[in-house]
Amino acid sequence: MATSIAVSKRPILGLPFLLPCCEPVTLQLRRAQSTYRRTKQRLRIKPDASFGSSTDSTQAHIIYNPPSSAPSAYHTPLKFLPPNDVRRTLRTDTSSSSLNIDALPSVFKSVPEKKYHLTREDVEEIRKLRASDPLVWSRWKLAQRFNCSPLFIAQACEASPQKKEIQRQVLEAVQSRWGAKRRMAREDRELRKESWGRDE
Amino acid sequence: MFSRSVLAKAFAPPLEQVARPSLTATSTTFRACLHQSTTTTSATNPPTEPLSATVRAQSSIPAVQPTFQTSTTPVTRADVPADKQPIAPAFTTPLKVSQSLLSTLPQLTSQKPHYITAHLHDRPYLLTEGDDLRLPFLMPNVAPGDVLRFNRASLLGSRDFTLKGSPYLDERLFECRVRVLGVDSEPLRVKEKTKRRRRHVQQITSKHRYTLLRVMEVKAKSVEELQREGAIVEEEAKA
Amino acid sequence: MKRLQLQRWSSSALSSRVRTGSRLHRQIYYSGARFQSTTSNSLQFEDDQSLAGQQPTPPSTNSPFPQFTKHQLPSPPIQAARESAKLAALHARLYLPSRLPLETLARCLVDTSADPNFQFNNNSLSVLGHDLLTNYASEHLVCTYPRLPLTVIFAAMYAYAGPKTLHAMSREWGVEHAAVPGGEVDPGLLQFKRVAPGTNLKEARPLVGTTRPNEDQTTWRKSITSSVVYDNVFGDPELAAPPPAELSDNVYPTNDGINSEPPVTAEVASANFVRAVVGAIYLHAGRQAAKRFFEQHFLSRQLDISKMFNFSQPARDLARLCARENYEAPVAKIISETGRRSRSPVFVVGVFSGRDKLGEGAGASLVEARSRAAVAALKGWYLYSPLEVRVPSAMEEDGAAPWKPVYVDLGEVIV
Amino acid sequence: MPVQGIRSVTSARNGVGAFILQCKRLDFHYCDWAGSSRGMVSFLKHQLNAFAKQNPQIEIRVSPRPHKHPVIKGHYINGREKAVCVRNLEPEQIFQKVNLLKQNSGEKNKRTKKPVTSINDSVRGIWSPYHGGLKSV
Question: Considering only the top CATH level, what class is D25-103?
């Protein structure tokens, strides 16, 4: 405390490293009002508009005010309700979606349409090529040649054990150059990815 | 402020009823509901009006239970003397609900977790089922294990819908039961008091006790239940 | 519905507890540790002071069987149940029906490891109670959440009626454990032979003698559906029951004098106790009382089923689900986003099928948000719950309304 | 395996279904000779029987403790114990102390500001800026 008083005689703006410690003080000063009554008044927040005012009705009534929060897992979406459930009829009139679904952007830039153009002979060809020289005919090369996705190549055929061994050694060579930080970051990323499925 | 029900149908004492076959005849009358002494309803004459709370209306007959008095062990909450038997609330008029309320009530009751803003001594408590409630005072004349029924609430809501009272809801629209868990106390507070020009510091101690409650049930009554209990649908005057 | 004849098949569980001479004869050879066990029970000593009737009963001469002191018995004698304050307090604390006598409650507190004789331990009661508990819990789960996948049902069953929960419950009922079981111990204490401290319980021994065929093949794939048939209600491998002929012979332990039962942990012993109490209520007070006991003590506990899911590939599962149910294929769309170019962006992604939103999730990347949205949609599917839920055992009450079929789902998504 | 179950344990909510009194044992210690135990002895002689009959779920132990002040100890289900010294108290005062021990939850006395504590999820969810009333930019 004594140091701050001593410092305050000097121009504070000239000492930018002192500013952060002063900031909370100024924030508090801005928040407090000169009287307790005014502070109370400012802090008194009116209920949300969707809640409605309490004076407009003389009787008990039900209002619809969906919360601004993430949806709960216990409320089954309308599409998932079985056809004989009462809630299907109850919910249609109230919860008409305000979102314009067609206007929403998609997560992926372009969704590739599925062509289904490869025949059985093509698949045989893919398998033969992959078995003949796995180093040349990688998944990517085969996909380009047959105009399909690498995922389809993986579904159609499997790499030979020698190729797998080579790939494993390559991966080990790359990973051996990682330091502790990168390794930990990669592991953390994997752990985070697993936590998505648990919804944590 | 609250009604007190010492014995509800679904709770521990029915185990006792099963236990003693000789007593089942006397104990089938459920002693359900007791208004705190502030309400001036009498227990002896059951109201003849069509009650919305017909289940509770059975309880207004003071149950004859001399056998309970002589029973030794285990003594449960069923052993309440006759003068402390719960008194059913007497309503002079049946419950009136508006048509708009009846039409939207299924939406509220079909959304499952409910909350309630129950008022006790004009203090609001936002409660859900299973919550712990530590009252800021010591409630007199209750023992651990008692079941109380809160009958004053301003809000009863689910996720998307809220039933609002003006300012309070009729107590026949909902059920909110709490159980008395016991009495809790705070650590000793010491307040130092000084007077001017008196070289003495007075130390005032206080240690308050509070009643602990547990919310057993928060339920909005459905349309069928309301109609079964004799609610009258009222046409909207303004509309 | 015809009522089961309780008396006929429960006679073995409720048999009058007569200690035969041959049985007692073996008790003589009990090792000296049992005689010393009073010293380890300092609490009990204090209790005996307050209760006047704890002296050993004087030997009566007209009895055909030889009399033995309490120190020679593996578990407290029957007469002690009436004199135990702890036992009466436990009986009253649980509001047990007065038809259930204190002697049965005392028997519930004797574990198999304390007294291997099936006429004096809680084994038969706990087997019955376990079946009742799992029956009630499973019908509640299946009727309330008809679409739950089997793995989650197993986990939820474990949460409702698993040994950990039962252990916690017996602690909440105020049941104390005896240091060492014995005839002189207060019958209000849970009696079991403890595992020696320092024993490694976690070491993975392959379970031998399960009901599953080819159990020695550890590398074989174990399907979830097969665990319905072979495993127990929690999805764990189960030991095969001995053939019934062997059971009836095994009422008395074969090797003389030595208590050959392996020691158990406190968790196992208290779980068996809680199950035995349920079984005892069923036998003495009937089915309704047992069901009410289950509802009050087990169903009233809080469990959040939505936190018991662990999806590995939610987006793929959701696509399979939509294909199975003939919905439009799910499409992920960005509902809102902020700070895309910043260090901590937030994307809110919804999964839509046609014009209906199935679920939404927020995440720091588009892939994460989409994955979380798919998880939310799958949970929305699996956690469907009908409005009025009635369980089949509700039909057992008198004057029950006619049964309406409950909602039955196709089953979980198979990828 | 598309979905796996995560094992957990249900959490207790005493009183929602069954209610279990948290006080499981009361120990009464007294001295036959000392004057500070006079009220306690009278309580034990005349009132304890009725109290024990009214509260069968509490185990009661009475034991002399010579040359010491009388003490009542309550043992609770959570493993804690609370002791009250009742020297020179009248039987009625002792009865009040016994009731206090009986009704207590056994927890350590804490000062709490909020009246309601809940283990349930919030009914209306936690507010988030990305939901409800979205403004299109």
Answer: alpha beta
